[in-house]
Amino acid sequence: MDILPILASLRRHKVTALLLILQIALTCAIVCNAVFLISQRLHRMQLPSGMAEHELVQIRLGSVGDGSDAKSQTQADVAALQRIPGVQQVAVVNQLPFTEGDASNGDLKLKPGQQTSTLTVAQYFGQNVVSTMGLHLLAGRNFQPEEYVDLDTALASLNNGSAQGFPQTVIITKGLAERLWPGEEALGKTFYLGGDIPFRVIGVVADLARPNQFYNGIENSILWPMRLTFAEGGSYLIRCAPGARRAVLKAGLAKLKELDPGRVVLEKRTYDDARSAFFAHDSAMSDMLLSVIIALLLVTGLGIVGLASFWVGQRRRQIGVRRALGATRGDILRYFQIENFLIVGFGIVLGMAMAYGLSLLLMQHYALPRLPFGYLPLGALALWLLGQCAVLAPALRAAAVPPVVATRTV
Amino acid sequence: MFGYYLDLALRSLKRNKALTVLMILAIAVGVGASMTTLTVLHVLSGDPVPGRSAHLYYPQLDPRPMQGYQPGETQPMRQVTWIDGMNLLHAGRADRQALMTGGRVAVQPENATLDAFYSDARYTTSGFFPMFGVPFRYGHPWSASDDESHARVVVISAELNNKLFGGRDSTGQTLRLSGRSMRIVGVLRDWRPNPHFYDLTRGSYNEHEGVFVPLSTSQDLNFDHMGGMSCWGNAGGGLHPSHTSTCVWLQFWVQLNSPAKVAAYKSFLVHYSEQQKALGRFERPPNVRLRNVMQWLDYNMVVPGDVRLQTWLSFGFLLVCLVNTVGLMLAKFMRRAGELGVRRALGASRRALFAQLLMESGVLGLAGGFGGLLLTFFGLWLVRRQPDGYAALAHLDPTMLLVTFVLAIGASLLAGVLPASRACRVTPALQLKGN
Fold first, then answer.
1. Domain end call among B243, B265, B299
2. Interchain CB distance below 8 Å, B387 and A307
3. Closest Cβ–Cβ partner in B104, B317, B388 for A292
4. What was the ipTM of the complex prediction?
């Protein structure tokens, strides 16, 4: 079928056609970017923590007293938790990947006295952390018992201006090692934190995500051999079989309450719950984006139906004349389908430019990467499909117009 | 004339019900989405202390070493050290001032049916209550002499008072906090400034303390510190920050009642920095800021980026809905060219036709506004079910209610202008001839 007559007739409905094109372009621009935003959120929600996520349970207690016997209490707690049937390992840890709240971070330097820090790292510490978390040790070794120092002695010595009481060794992630020393062996290397306290790398683990502040590099985490107590904000991290988690959590809480009923439970959850709570916002945002996409497509689809119906109504005479002059029903149907295809096509061309502009705008105001080009043909396909579906009913109605209409006056 | 146009509009809308419903729905959905997000934005960027915020200022200093300092670019610290906070507080150069930090205490009820629980606490000085205009239900704030004598006194929130004492006047009673006995001197009325402007390190929204304790007392009793802390050099944090460490962990607020006092206070801060540099405590040249409440909130970008993004998105959506309505109205009005031609021929002016057609779009807008309002209530209900701290605050106030209708009717009138102006340009003779 010839396109030119369709274009010529569209020119007679210039304003209406332009409005429809504009609507499709806007829809295309918003939908492409919204789909991209959703994919970003989904990607974020699937980031690996590096831990054996489905085998972990977290309990965090707060002390009511002055915490003077917290060290022995923490030891007793860990021993008691370890005795619970089904429990494989127990750790005390200062923070967990993908959790809200205050995180321990430090500015890392490669040379002492360096003017600005190289990057910021999340600082994990506690007892028995590497094996309980199930971190995958790629090179080097885990901490030895004699390497551990107590958090309070380390802090006290820091406040007295010396780094003597601080650990000397550190385990880092593979990602951090590659950023600090690209292509080199990280084991045995030294970096500096705070006021030039040196730390020697003794082990490299595959992954350990930071608690939050991902803009600082999600993989930039380090581990110290440093003991802390529950009263200093330490969480008990318990590892058990995935099916035993609820039972272990319940038994653990009962045990801890039995040991000291006066303490306040601040957190009691499986790590899976902790993780989904952290990403709840992202999942809500992608739901919201998804409903906007659906609503937009619906409004645009209905708009096409409405306009196409009007055009069909307006052109009943012309259709009748064309039918009387020999056009088949298929010709009429195709006429409206091709007309819609053209309008949507113009809309898509304009929409792609707008989608790209919108993406640039979003990049300026939000930390977002550029819209990948792959999204544009996908958006185009979706809109063409939508247009064809929407125009089908009015076009069929047009095809059903009998040739006899041509002979009537109104 | 108004009644006649209204009648015409209703007749015309009734003639094509499906299309009318479609247009109303499009406006309603667009308005509903925009108003939901706009309300959230409005709630979140509101003034937490109306009437006072313009006079409340947040002094910032820069006590860090020269390392990493870029003149004119480096922002000063977001909080103050214990030493600087105490110095500024005791200097007393402002109309009112208060030094404060966040914390947490274990509340141990006398009532055996209640387990001990943690409550967020604010350790502050007596200036806090009059400066922020904190309303009291019972009792009164503690005095400056209580600050000096490290008195074991406490002010509690209405919520905590309800929980512990069933809302009765509890002043004079003893409350055990983290193992220490404190005397209740005051009970607040419901007071929840949102955002939590005076300490943004504890979360920006829906954070409120149950317990207020004099700062001096909290340090005596070793109460836990909670909230942001930044250190430099060889210093570490913990629950009990050292008073001499190189860490900032306190907030200092001042009330300055006139622009002249603001200028004077700023030069005082510069002077103080110079003095501290001369003493060898500071290394950097004076690097100070003095922001008022709204500037401080802006600087900290408290309104979540996602909320702004959602607002833009929903207005984009409204735009699509409007373009959709314009297109449909245009098609509809153009189709009535014959009828309009007859009216023109019978003597109606273009202006009259234009008014008549706009009336039709106005009616659509009103209906769309009602629909939009319902959808806004539904949308806000959905928002309140979201996991964010601010979600519970999302409620429609009378201003936003009015904005909803203005937006709906304004938008549909705007959408009606182009179609109406094109439609009333019909040439009567041509239309009559065609028929």
1. B299
2. no
3. B317
4. 0.80
